[in-house]
Amino acid sequence: MYGLPNSLKMLSPAEEQVMLAVWRCTPPATGAAIAKELVHTGWASTTRLTLLTRLEQKGWLQKEKRPGGTVYLPKITLRAYRVYTARERLDTVFDGDLSALLSALLSEHRPGLPQLEAARALLQQQMDAQIEYDWYDPYG
Amino acid sequence: MYGLPNSLKMLSPAEEQVMLAVWRCTPPATGAAIAKELVHTGWASTTRLTLLTRLEQKGWLQKEKRPGGTVYLPKITLRAYRVYTARERLDTVFDGDLSALLSALLSEHRPGLPQLEAARALLQQQMDAQIEYDWYDPYG
DNA sequence: TCATTTTTACTACATTTGTAGAAGATTTTG
DNA sequence: CAAAATCTTCTACAAATGTAGTAAAAATGA
Asked: Does some domain include residue A130?
């Protein structure tokens, strides 16, 4: 449901920054809005534009010329990208081991209780669903 | 405690594969053992060696010539790298939001109950520690 | 130990990535 | 609308990355 089209390879770090900036904008993201989201990079405007163009060529964005300025529409949702990148790390570096990943995250970081509680609830919910599934599935 | 030395920038995908292969070996990792861990890549042996050399230059590995063959010693532990890369994704793509990351992981994947239970236990443990900390810390 | 196999060092090169100047097109503003 | 400010396109280029050949060195086997 959330996989990326096969043709989309991994983003380079600079490209990723641009995509994240686009996703941060209220759509449709205008050139100016994206620029604002990228001030922290200190890039020349041409650098930003080069990256936007490359992202369009690679199929991550769709550029649309409108009166008042060009807008850039993500072809991939942030949600899909998150699923993809999280999964990629889990499989590549953590051998698919969810608790190993979690443990790495917690080992340096002290998320607040609400964060932790929310995360735990998610897992609990997943577990409940799983149990129900096992219970009712005739092939389980 | 687990941060990478600042001088170490991110690994490229190919370099990461090599480091993962080295970590998979029982130390000390010999050239042959590493090669075995990388058969799936289909790389020419020179490709592998080029990458090993680059990793040494960049400070990820230490090469040691021994009678019987060179061995490669990781200067960075797998554990440290995992912490680093997990954290990097969390901050960059998930805005530091742990449950967002978790939710991305669960949305496509159906880890088994033991996996989920282990993960939940980890969180629970972290929460307990947190609560205790809040309770006793005079500055909390 | 000498030929055979394996490993390593050095070199090479195409592709991708990071970064931006010059110049033309567009938008904004007085 | 004309001048000023901004945006976009095209072009460029150095550095990093992916990939491997050639030849020298080391290990192995007979």
From this structure: no
